[in-house]
Write a structure and sequence with these properties.
Rossmann fold, 8 strands, eight-stranded mixed beta sheet, alpha/beta, 12 helices
Length: 275
């Protein structure tokens, strides 16, 4: 298992190298996930180009670094790994919280990006109501981390999907139960304090390929309502959109559709334009 020293601890990553001239694809997981989330989507992508998957601070096999993992800090972690591997320019695709990290990366390290994808994510900050929910979540995690995980993960899926892929959801819960309490709390605080990054979609960094931002959204998303996404995904910088008929966890409920759509976006950036 490859690790990189970072701020006195370590970050876990896996790099799948390719001889392809396509810009590498960097995959950033979401809250309560790890790099394992991409496993069943990787084969098609690795056949096209190099792919980097990472465990964010406090997730998977990466260390926890303190009481709060800000989106800036997580972006710095991605920067440390991609710089170590000399990956630039590359495409960064982030799921949910990983999208927040990707937007922060675009603010601080735009010269490294050829493309940015919000994979069931949003550039908008937490609402007041959402911030209160984060505080309640922290209290729940402190009382009983495992109860919080078992209650939270099924809510990421619509009722029908919860039944059709129950075994996959149970496997995800089992993996997430291995997370440390501090890693969960640090991520919650980081998400709560994140800033509005909507301007990235309206005035993208000059280094991004024209229309190089992609948005993948779920019609049945219970975390980021599709009607909210529709209010901003026509922004000038967005050149690729994928509408999944499922919910927030498209990589599980819509594997084939998401795998093909990401590849289509990656190919369009490689050719020099967006689809």
């Amino acid at each position: 298992m490859p690790f990189l020293e970072f701020h006195g601890a370590s970050l876990h990553y896996e790099f799948h190298s390719s001889e392809s001239t396509a810009p590498p694809l960097v995959l950033v997981h979401g809250f309560l996930e790890d790099l394992y989330m991409w496993k069943e989507l990787l084969p098609q992508w690795k056949a096209f180009g190099s792919v980097l998957t990472v465990d964010l601070p406090g997730h998977g096999a990466s260390s926890s670094f303190g009481y709060e993992h800000s989106m800036d800090f997580m972006a710095d972690a991605i920067h440390a790994i991609t710089t170590y591997l000399n990956l630039q320019p590359f495409l960064l695709l982030g799921h949910s919280m990983g999208g927040y990290v990707g937007l922060e990366f675009a603010v601080h390290y735009p010269e490294q990006l050829a493309g940015l994808a919000l994979f069931f994510s949003t550039p908008e900050p937490d609402t007041v109501e959402r911030k209160l929910m984060r505080e309640r979540a922290v209290d729940l995690v402190k009382k009983n981390k495992n109860t919080f995980i078992r209650a939270s993960i099924p809510q990421l899926f619509d009722a029908k999907t919860r039944e059709t892929i129950k075994s996959d959801i149970d496997a995800l819960i089992s993996r997430t139960l291995q997370m440390e309490t501090q890693g969960i709390i640090a991520a919650i605080y980081g998400m709560k304090k994140r800033e509005d990054r909507s301007h990235i979609l309206h005035q993208p960094p000059v280094h991004l390929k024209e229309n190089g931002i992609a948005v993948f959204a779920g019609v049945q998303d219970t975390v980021i309502p599709f009607e909210h996404v529709q209010q901003w995904w026509e922004a000038p910088g967005v050149g690729f959109r994928y509408e999944s008929p499922y919910g927030h966890m498209g990589h599980m409920s819509d594997k084939d559709g998401c795998s093909a759509a990401v590849l289509q976006w990656w190919q369009s950036i490689t050719r020099g334009g967006a689809a």
